[in-house]
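ESCALATION

Customer reports they have been waiting on this structure for their group meeting. Please prioritize. Original submission:
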Amino acid sequence: MSLSFLLTSLIVIVSPGTGVLYTLAAALTRGSRASVAAAFGCTLGIVPHITAAMLGLAAVLHTSALAFAVLKWLGVLYLLSMAWQALRERGALAVDGHVDVRSTAKVIVTGCLINILNPKLSIFFLAFLPQFIAVGENHPVARMLELSAAFMAMTFVVFVIYGLFAASVRDRIVTRPQVMIWLRRIFAGGFAVLGLRLALTER
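Update from on-call: job pushed to the front of the queue and completed.
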């Protein structure tokens, strides 16, 4: 596995996006356990896109305006609903000191859906992974699986680090209602901006 692949992947992963924002929000509203669950959900949401890239389905999204638009607008609506939930203190981003199995599952599912409903990820992997597979590779599928596994592992680790750092300062924040109000507005605005950016995205 080349150093260029690892460095490029790290730059992509640490860049602020929906996954990072959601992991931070989960950490600050529900604590460290929820942050790990969010990181796991976001990482799990990568699997369908990698599978699509390997099966060539991402090419369909790239060439079919209808398929791309359907998935894109579903993603936009979901991000806007996340913004609304953040403002209303509902759903997976509700402040809760007790995180049970059910609420953890909700955090994972939400993180997973955030990434699944982003068509740009499929196209990204379709364009990204093949660059690091040598021409004449004897086992290209196995190589792609290896690169995909490494990318997912890095994603999970980086998101967990983000989440645990945010969770470490959680107690200082949740005890200040005014701070939480502004924090929720920031997260809601962040999800809304990301939704708008996705809405303006072309194939």
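Sent to customer with the following note: The CA atoms of residues 120 and 203 lie 8 Å apart.
Escalation resolved.
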